[in-house]
């Protein structure tokens, strides 16, 4: 069960904090107007010798999210800032975090650094080689490039080898405001419903194989940017969603061939 960390409501909105794995905290802000059921924006804080924040969040949410971080550790202690791909909800507040944490540095795959982040960030980023492990003291984060999965050519995920937590960004996106951590529930149907609503996934012949390679990591927890974190058959959920996406790609290609 996710362990809550107490906090206050700020300007009519709240960022909740729950520990979803050992030293891995989910920071979640519910935005009621994004869809008929609302939408969550989630960041993940890893408390370690060199603390790491995955997802910067929107600039407008920085006051809420930084206050939430401070319930776990002083913001100025942050050493690493990273995210899945270049998009406002992923890195909009990047320079706010760099200003608040003087020793912090953005770490991302080399492609993302080269095409965008080196120009956007107020301090030079730390390019990560493909598959490089960032040892932050107590947690080991493996960088894995996932081009166009779910979208953006510089897309990546991080796998916390120490806890088996896959920081999987926009994969399994769903609407609503569920529990912080759910167990052995259907993750695929809500993701497909959200896909039908937002059409945010790049469905290509490489989508399913990329997701199946993530399943081969045998993660124990999936940390979603939009939706609840999940424990249970994570590999099965990844493969089932990959199969559903593969079916959609096949149908689209067959329709084009007619």
Instruction: Give average pLDDT, whole number.
Output: 95
Overall helicity: 25-40%
Tell me the series of helices and strands, N- to C-terminal.
EEEEEHEHHEHEEEEEEHHEEH
- List the total number of helices: 7
Distance between the termini: 50 Å
Structural class: alpha/beta
Strand content: 25-35%
Largest sheet: spatial strand order:
1-2-3-4-5-6-7-8
Provide an overview of this structure.
With 258 residues, the chain is of the alpha/beta class. The chain has helices spanning 62-70, 88-91, 94-100, 110-120, 188-198, 207-215, 234-257, and strands spanning 3-5, 15-21, 24-31, 39-46, 52-54, 80-82, 105-109, 126-128, 133-135, 140-145, 156-160, 165-169, 181-183, 221-224, 229-231. α6 runs antiparallel to α7. The longest helix is centred in the last third of the chain and has 24 residues, at 234-257. The radius of gyration is 17 Å and the shape is globular.
Compose a concise summary of this entry.
The protein is built from 7 helices and 15 strands. It is of the alpha/beta class and about 260 residues long.
Layout of helices and strands:
Elements: E1 3-5, E2 15-21, E3 24-31, E4 39-46, E5 52-54, H1 62-70, E6 80-82, H2 88-91, H3 94-100, E7 105-109, H4 110-120, E8 126-128, E9 133-135, E10 140-145, E11 156-160, E12 165-169, E13 181-183, H5 188-198, H6 207-215, E14 221-224, E15 229-231, H7 234-257
Parallel strand pairs: 5-6, 6-7, 7-8, 12-14, 13-15
Antiparallel strand pairs: 1-2, 2-3, 3-4, 4-5, 9-10, 10-11, 11-12, 14-15
Helix pairs in contact: 6-7
